[in-house]
Amino acid sequence: MFNSLKKKLKSWVKKNEEEVIVETKKKEKATKSAKKIKKKTEKKTETKKEKLKQSPDETIEAPLEKKEFFVKFKKRLTEEKFEELFEELQIILLQNNVAYSAVDSIKETLAEKLIGKTLKEVDLSDELKNSIESILINPPSFLKEIRDSLEVKKPFVILFSGINGSGKTTTIAKMTNYLQKNKLSVCLAAADTFRAAAIQQLEEHANKLKVPIIKKDYGSDPASVGFEAITYAKKNKIDVVLIDTAGRMQNKDSLMKEIEKIAKVTKPDMKIFLGESITGNDATEQAKSFNESIGLTGIILSKADVDEKGGTAISVSHVTGKPILFLGTGQEYKDLEVFDKKKIVEKLGL
Asked: Which of 58, 111, 241, 322 is most exposed by smallest CB count within 10 Å?
């Protein structure tokens, strides 16, 4: 993850650090030159003083006060120079799937830290890391939120949404395994009734993980499947219900209205968007649309292990205002990583 972005950001930082070195060398050269001028001036002054002693009537010209301009001058970053500096960084970020609004936020934070300073006074690498970290949202404790809710009522209901092929069913299986490892019982709802294969796939996972699954025939009302799963969980004192839904494109109004209906009927405690890391800005726009439709609680990004650019992880939560809860990092049940923004920034390796 982040391989492409990491290389380009490191190159950008190195380039600007090298500029600082060049400027420093220029200053050192200017300092030496200024010292030579000072010595010559002092020597001339001493000579004139000697002459004055010998000829009291001779007037002496006051020595020119040198302020050692080149020594004291420090090239501070003006707003114009910052714009020039950021232009290249902006292209790097956009090429690596960071959304425009996220780029603007990074720019604003960096400008505040850098304008009026010299690049020698600040650590450009640290400031860049801090500005990226500032736009990421750390998720609340997923397990704590569930356990706190279970003290009030059972079951805790999680609705999964996303477009076709984003990996919802596999991620639900991973989530089931994660909850089981943390001593929570689970029931699955096969509410993707548009595809018989989706029901079969979820059932296979349910059998492997030894959890109950509520399903209906192909073409059944998906909202009713979710409702029956919740009823079953209440009766059997099951902690968590995970509702699978059909993949749908965010620009299909009829399908978006359907998931709104599912959400209204099942009243989930958590509504999760499942997106693919590798789809970049598409995933960001999809998450934004689903958030506007059903009001997301959080986001899970699949295929993070094969995401070379990493911009989706940086921008998707910033655009929606919702945290990334987990990253899918492989095909096995254990390959579900709790999102931590500090770890994400560390992976940039700046």
From this structure: 58
